[in-house]
Design brief:
Pfam families: AAA_16. This is AAA ATPase. There is one protein chain. The chain is an alpha/beta fold. Helix content is 61%, strand content 6%. The longest helix has 25 residues.
């Protein structure tokens, strides 16, 4: 609505006079002059909108001439000028006197929210919305339609007159022009259509004029200026902007009889759009460009604007918004090179930064594909620097504490992978990796997952952008998959771009997408094509600062040549300028071109050719520098530039770099180095080197750098040097000395890669080194070969290429001259064999090595032998204490090897030959007590402690637990360093097999979970997953919430699936089934267990017994529990836990089957648990009291039963065993029900139901509900 109370209505003619005075008073003030022009254009736009919306026809009262003229309009002007942000804010609308209609013009308030105060002060653009009162005349054509009766053309002609008077402040002058507007005897104006001309002579004339420097010469001399063109030029002489002069010309042309100019207006709608465009961006479209006489005009592309990508921009923005709510997602964007993939992704940067997110980027190329994993690690390494920059010292302290809590003693893993972690805290500085600690691809992957898990969150989501991932391989993509599929809190948005025309259907990208979808990671994939013709016209209109309708013919040609590829468009347009086919006419103050000549020119539709032509025209020294940079990939470090500048050949490289930047070929990368502006430019620069010369060029460049850097610490430049040399290996086929030198260089580079955990890169360099060795290398280069082959084996093992690792190790063993030179290889070989599940071979190899080291091992070992050896070991061990163990001497090297292989063989024997475990453990104990201790001894002490706790023959729980605690305290004292590579195994040995006898289940479970993380962090997957199984087991038996436990189980299952550990996964699926069945009565569909996976019978019985007990299937529970209780060997871990439920269940079974055996079960169990409670009341006292209560209940001792039930409930609550508290309440309720105390029974049933609900078992809660309902009937 028009606010009449605050506006004044000023006749347009009077308003124009006022504006003319303002203009006269500000001739020397360019900004104020521009402000007046914006005001005039605003009024012109309002009148055009008014005419478009009213769109009335002559009705006898007013002719078109009377309607479209100055005196028919008034301007609504605001009165409170002091409150206006800009000088044009007082123009609130237009009133049309003849119709009585008013048009309100408003600038939406939300736009001001999008601009900073500084932007508000500096910007002149206006986005206006209009509202007509009264609304559109009934029966008139609706908005956007084009009149077909000629009235629109007539209005356009008359609007030209109005526009002239508005901007010139003078009456419309020329009689001849007036006559033409009135249409009286108007001769036909020559048409501005495309005519057939002699293109060859026209092009020749054009080129000659360019050669003379006459860039204002007309493009086509066959045409003369029309009357209207002359008139427009006269307007220009009055100081009216060219944009308005051109608009006036085209408006006048709209009324010509016959053929019109292609630029003539055909409707008020188009006119209104052009006027609004002038207001939206006056600096670009409205005001004249100031180009000096000797200056070159530039094409003014909007570098920040994404043309034609609104849908795709919304897709990635919406995906990021979902990620910032706490869940990872991935987007893969395909498209040809130059289609704008990178620009699309980078458009999201500011939004990510604005919400506190972190943007990490890395760009692959055909050079860096040799280091695919480096890209991911490098990108995450950036994160440390970003966090350092953004946080206060307090914030950094909080972050480092989170990292310390997550990694503990394993912080060196982070430091070895991400050097920038030291920026966050001095605590993360590691001078060297702990001795014998090795991380492999699995541990690297898990370390990065943990790192992202700690640092990402909905408040600080991470956006990882990898550009050109067609050069990446499955190693890098597997790491990203692991991060994205992490269900424990990672919050990452991954965006990968790739050239879909350069990848085959079997490329790792497609497998990566399948894995993400299988892991339920939301994933989208789309491709960018060329811009459509409308978006391309907008892009060219912006570049030329001309109306889109005028640019469309040129745009159509460009589209035909480039298919809308944005980068190709830029290069094509630039080539037109270079060839003189598109130029800035200083006289007309606008860009001009000749369509017919451009259309007829045989201009290639291949962007590579355009760029090649462009680069070939550069000076030779600049070409040379671009060729060198292209050999290094898309970017080149400052360090590398520095070394090049030290050479004679490239001493002036820095000057040439400045030239390359000025020429638009390269730019600074923000890290001190340089990068190519676009991949296509790098490719074109690289193709300046003839194909036949490329290898030689790389080789010479590498040798030059090697000579310059010899003896220096060059860091990553070493990889560059070796990679360059390797491109020319065929050039040194007949030069043995050079081959050896380069083999050594590759080995050195490989070892650096291995040291940095870049196993893929290390493998590639080692492979080259091997290929350069002579046939007799083991004879002629024995020491070098031993070192090289061992490095090959380590890199292969760390990359999970176990077959290659085994072959390399076997070669060392076969070729080595003595046992001492084989031992390290044999040690790694046994590790590889265990990984390959070749248990027998691992056992045999360790056995044979121990024999060669002088050990005597019996072929068999029975219980009598075990008893005797344990007795002997016990005497040697004596009354060992923490202090005496800490004072034990360090073991000698030979004994350490013996202990190392005993450690191997005992680990294998635990699962393959359990009867031999006591011998191996005792022998290791004896060796340690006699010769000294090492980290490999620790396992033997724990094995021995485990035997004391679990073996019926020589059970001594108190002694076993005591020894176990002493050993773990020695480990925590870091006597042997962090023992990170042993931590997973030690956690399993102590907390899964010993500690639960004396320490709370919950603590044991927490430590087992740490063992899971430690094992995954060091690549010890075997013991990591054993810890996972036992942590779930203890979680189930200690009353952990079942829903949380199910999620944890599913997490471990996903990890086992990624590691393809089908056997352990099958065991974990049993827990998943049990937990699921305890939660709900709904039918459980068991996942398919992989072929070859074996479920041990006792494992099966344990789960079935537990499920049956809590589902009140007493006979079935008894059946499975008895199988465990009757097992002579194995199942010791299950025995103590199932005994409790077996005993409670026996009371029900005894009601059906009366046998001495069944009746004896509770008393036997009670005896066992009383003994166990002596070591840990936390774990076992509640069980003792509940069994006592049930026995009192059976024997009719009601008062004692009540007291024992109450004690059992209190003990379970104190131990935080919510499930067993519920069980005790349930049993108490049944007792009170039995003796007729209904109220007490209902009270206990209600408490039991509450406990079962907290536990998460709807099954038990529903069962109790049925009991309550029966009692209330």
């Amino acid at each position: 609505m028009m606010a009449e109370s605050t506006d004044s209505l000023v006749p347009l003619r009077s308003w124009i006079k006022d504006e003319a005075k303002k203009l006269n008073n500000c001739q020397n003030d360019r900004r104020k002059k521009k402000e007046v022009i914006v005001r005039l254009t605003t009024v012109a736009y309002g009148i055009a909108e008014m005419l478009k919306l009213v769109n009335s026809r002559p009705n006898g009262k007013h002719s078109l001439e009377e309607e479209v003229q100055i005196d028919n309009f008034c301007v609504h002007v605001g009165r409170e000028a002091d409150s206006f942000q800009h000088p044009w804010d007082d123009i609130n609308g237009i009133r049309m006197i003849s119709t009585g209609s008013s048009l309100t013009m408003l600038e939406p308030s939300y736009l001001s929210c999008l601009l900073s105060e500084e932007e508000k002060d500096g910007q002149m653009g206006r986005y206006l919305e209009v509202e007509l009162e009264p609304s559109i005349v009934e029966g008139s054509p609706s908005e956007g339609t084009v009149s077909t009766d000629g009235n629109d053309n007539r209005r356009c002609q008359l609007f030209a007159r109005l526009l002239y008077e508005l901007f010139s402040h003078q009456p419309f002058p020329d009689e001849d022009v007036c006559t033409r507007i009135n249409g009286d005897n108007c001769p036909r104006e020559p048409a501005h259509k495309k005519t057939k001309v002699d293109h060859l002579s026209s092009r020749k004339e054009l080129m000659l004029s360019r050669a003379r420097g006459d860039f204002d010469n007309k493009a086509d001399s066959t045409q003369t200026d029309s009357t209207f063109q002359v008139f427009a030029r006269k307007m220009q002489e009055l100081g009216i902007p060219v944009s308005i002069c051109l608009m006036t010309q085209n408006l006048l042309e709209s009324g010509l009889n016959g053929d019109k100019s292609g630029d003539a207006y055909n409707s008020l709608r188009v006119l209104s759009e052009d006027l609004h465009l002038l207001l939206l961006d006056p600096e670009r479209f409205l005001f004249d460009k100031e180009v000096g006489e000797h200056d070159n005009a530039d094409l003014l592309y909007r570098k920040e604007k994404l043309y034609g990508r609104d849908r795709e921009e919304s897709l990635i923005t919406d995906a990021f918004c979902r990620v910032s709510r706490g869940k990872s997602e991935a987007i893969l964007i395909g498209g040809f090179s130059g289609s704008g993939k990178s620009k699309l992704v980078n458009s999201l940067r500011d939004r990510v930064d604005a919400v506190g997110g972190y943007v990490l980027t890395y760009k692959y190329d055909d050079i860096s594909k040799e280091k695919p994993l480096f890209g991911v690690v490098s990108a995450l390494n950036q994160l440390c620097a970003i966090i350092k920059e953004r946080n206060t010292s307090k914030g950094l302290l909080a972050i480092t504490n989170k990292l310390k809590n997550a990694f503990g003693d394993d912080y060196w893993l982070l430091a070895s992978l991400l050097p920038n972690i030291s920026l966050l805290s001095f605590d993360f500085i590691v001078n060297e990796k702990p001795a014998s600690e090795t991380i492999n691809l699995r541990s690297l992957c898990f370390t990065l997952v943990r790192f992202v898990r700690v640092l990402s969150s909905p408040v600080h989501p991470i956006m990882l952008f990898l550009d050109d991932v067609q050069w990446a391989d499955d190693t890098a993509l597997d790491v990203i998959h692991s991060i994205l599929s992490d269900t424990r809190g990672s919050c990452m948005f991954f965006v990968g771009t790739y050239r879909d025309n350069e990848v085959l259907s079997n490329h790792a990208i497609y497998n990566f997408v399948e894995k993400l979808e299988a892991s339920n990671v939301p994933t989208k994939k789309f491709s960018l094509t060329g811009l459509n013709q409308e978006d391309l016209t907008t892009m060219i209109s912006d570049a030329l600062c001309l109306y889109p309708r005028i640019c469309k013919p040129l745009s159509d040609i460009v589209f035909q040549k480039t298919k809308g590829n944005p980068f190709f468009v830029l290069e094509f347009m630039q080539s037109l300028c270079t060839r003189g086919l598109l130029w800035y006419n200083r006289q007309q103050k606008r860009w001009v071109w000749n369509e017919s000549i451009i259309r007829s020119e045989e201009i290639t539709d291949n962007v590579k050719y355009l760029l090649a032509s462009k680069l070939n025209g550069l000076p030779g020294n600049l070409q040379g520098v671009l060729k060198v940079l292209a050999c290094f990939g898309t970017s080149t470090s400052e360090q590398l530039i520095g070394y090049l500048s030290e050479t004679i050949e490239y001493s002036a490289i820095r000057d040439r770099l400045d030239d390359a930047i000025s020429g638009g070929f390269i730019e600074k990368d923000g890290k001190g180095g340089f990068k190519f502006v676009h991949d296509k430019i790098r490719e074109a620069a690289y193709n300046l080197i003839p194909t036949s010369d490329k290898n030689q060029f790389h080789y010479d460049l590498g040798k030059l750098l090697h000579a310059t850097c010899k003896g220096k610490e060059v860091g990553d430049v070493q990889f560059v040097i070796v990679s360059q040399i390797n491109r020319g290996l065929q050039l040194i086929e007949s030069h043995p000395s050079l081959r050896m030198e380069i083999a050594e260089l590759n080995m050195k580079a490989g070892n650096v890669g291995l040291d940095r955990s870049d196993f893929v890169t290390a493998n590639s360099y080692f492979s080259v080194s091997l290929s350069l060795l002579p046939e007799d290398h083991w004879n002629s280069m024995y020491t070098f070969c031993r070192s090289l082959y061992f490095s090959v084996a380590k890199a292969a093992y760390s990359s999970a290429n176990l077959e290659k690792a085994q072959k390399a190790l076997q070669k060392i063993i076969d070729e080595s001259k003595c046992l001492n030179e084989k031992l390290d290889a044999l040690h790694l070989l046994v590790t590889v064999l265990v990984e390959r599940d070749a248990q027998e071979q691992a056992f045999t190899t360790s056995f044979e090595v121990l024999l060669q080291l002088g050990e005597t091992i019996p072929d068999s070992f029975d219980k009598r032998d075990a008893r005797a050896m344990v007795k002997k070991t016990s005497k040697i061990l004596g009354d060992i204490s923490e202090e005496s163990m800490s004072k034990m001497k360090e073991v000698d090297k030979k004994t350490e090897y013996i202990l190392m292989f005993y450690n191997h063989i005992s680990g294998v024997a635990f699962f393959a030959k359990p009867a031999m475990v006591p011998y191996f453990s005792c022998r290791m104990m004896q060796l340690s007590m006699e010769n000294g201790i090492s980290k490999y001894s620790i396992g033997s002490f724990l094995n021995y402690a485990g035997m004391l706790c679990n073996n019926k023959v020589f059970r001594n729980i108190e002694g076993g637990c005591r020894l176990g605690r002493i050993v773990m305290k020695t480990v925590s004292s870091k006597r042997f360093g962090s023992c990170s590579d042993q931590k997973a195994k030690l956690c399993f040995q102590y907390y899964a097999l010993i500690a639960y006898y004396s320490e709370p289940f919950q603590h044991c479970r927490d430590m087992l979970r740490e063992g899971v993380e430690a094992g995954l962090g060091t690549g010890d997957v075997r013991y990591s997953f054993l810890n996972a199984l036992n942590s779930i087991r203890l979680g189930l038996l200690s009353g952990k919430n079942l829903q949380d436990l199910l999620k944890e189980t599913e997490y471990y299952l996903s990890m086992m699936g990624k590691q393809k550990d089908n056997q352990t996964k099958a065991l974990m699926l049993m827990f998943h089934e049990t937990i699921s069945l305890l939660i709900s009565n709904s039918e459980y569909t068991a996942p398919t267990i992989a072929t070859g996976s074996i479920i041990p019978p006792l494992q099966h019985c344990f789960h079935k017994a537990l499920q049956s007990f809590f589902k009140s299937r007493s006979e079935r529970c008894n059946h499975f529990a008895e199988k465990i209780m009757q097992a002579a060997e194995g199942g010791r871990q299950h025995h103590i836990f199932i005994t409790f439920y077996y005993a409670l269940n026996s009371f029900k079974v005894a009601e059906i089957v009366h046998t001495k055996k069944i009746n004896a079960v509770p008393d036997q169990a009670l005896s066992a648990f009383r003994a166990a409670a002596e070591h840990s009341k936390d774990n076992f006292q509640n069980k003792v009291e509940l069994l006592e209560a049930e026995l009192y209940n059976r024997d009719g001792e009601n008062d004692k039963a009540k007291a024992s039930y109450a004690a059992a409930i209190a003990s379970a609550r104190l131990s935080k065993f919510i499930h067993e508290e519920g069980l005790a309440c349930e049993k108490a309720a049944l007792h009170h029900k039995k003796i007729g105390e209904t109220s007490e029974a209902l009270n206990y049933f209600t408490k039991a139901q509450e406990c079962y609900k907290k536990w998460g078992s709807q099954v038990k809660a529903d069962e109790i509900e049925r009991q309550i309902e029966l009692m209330q009937m």
